[in-house]
Write a structure and sequence with these properties.
Blueprint: E1 5-8, H1 13-23, E2 29-32, H2 49-64, E3 68-77, E4 84-85, H3 98-108, E5 116-127, E6 130-142, E7 158-160, H4 172-178, H5 180-193
Parallel strand pairs: 1-2, 1-3
Antiparallel strand pairs: 3-4, 3-5, 5-6, 6-7
C-alpha cells in the first residue's frame, strides 16, 4: 500500500520516534496527534485491544483526513485468565501509576506457581474506507520481584522467553526487536512493502 503521510494516533514521544525511524526511510512523512492540537483524547472503552486500536485510528483518520495508525497493548497473565488484558493501563484503578499496577499484579500472583504471561499489541491502520490490523505477541513470565530501570509499565517484572533479563534490563534496541509492539509494527511495515 502506498502511503505518503501517516498520522500516529499517539502523544507518546518514544512511540512516535520509533515509528519515524522505521517509516522515514520508506519515504513516508510521519505526523502524530501532537501535530493536531485540536484533536480530542479518545476514551479507550472497548472490550478488546482491536476495538480500542480501531476506535483511535478511525477518529484520527476522520478528523485529519489522513491515514492513521494506532495501537493498544495488554499484558495477558495465564493464571489470571488473561487479566489484566485490555485493562492493563488501569489495572489498579483509574489514574493508577505504573507502580500501582505492578504492585497489584505481584500481589495477585503471590504464591502462584504458574507465572506464564504474554504481551499482545494490536496495531490498526485506517485509510479512508480501508481498515487493517496487525498483531504482535511476546511470550514470557512474570518475576516475583522487579528488576531493571529502563522501559515503563510492567517491564521490570516481565522476562521474555529466551532471555535472562527483564524488559526493563534489556537495551531499547533488543526490546524493540523482540517486543509485541515491535512485532506488530514489523508486520505493518512488511504490509506496506508488499504493494497490496
Amino acid at each position: 500500500m502506498k502511503l505518503e503521510k501517516l498520522v500516529i494516533a499517539s502523544q507518546n514521544p518514544h512511540k512516535i520516534e520509533e515509528l519515524q525511524q522505521l517509516l522515514n526511510p520508506m519515504g513516508i512523512e510521519v505526523l502524530s496527534t501532537q501535530d493536531f492540537p485540536e484533536l480530542e483524547e479518545v476514551v479507550e472503552d472497548k472490550e478488546t485491544l482491536e476495538g480500542n486500536a480501531l476506535k483511535k485510528a478511525r477518529y484520527v483518520a476522520e478528523a485529519t483526513g489522513l491515514p492513521a495508525l494506532s495501537d493498544d497493548t495488554g499484558l495477558e497473565v495465564e493464571a489470571l485468565d488473561g487479566a489484566p488484558g485490555v485493562y492493563s493501563a488501569r489495572y489498579a484503578g483509574e489514574g493508577a501509576s505504573y507502580q500501582d499496577n505492578v504492585d497489584k499484579l505481584l500481589k495477585e500472583l503471590g504464591g502462584v506457581a504458574n507465572r506464564a504471561a504474554q504481551f499482545r499489541t494490536v496495531a490498526a491502520l485506517v485509510k479512508g474506507e480501508h481498515e487493517f490490523t496487525f498483531e504482535g505477541v511476546c511470550k514470557g513470565e512474570i518475576l516475583k520481584e522487579e528488576r531493571g530501570d529502563k522501559g515503563f509499565g510492567y517491564d521490570p517484572v516481565f522476562k521474555p522467553e529466551g532471555y535472562q533479563e527483564t524488559f526493563a534490563e534489556l537495551s531499547s534496541a533488543i526490546k524493540n526487536e523482540i517486543s509485541h509492539r515491535g512485532r506488530a509494527i514489523q508486520k505493518f511495515v512488511e504490509f506496506l512493502k508488499s504493494d497490496k
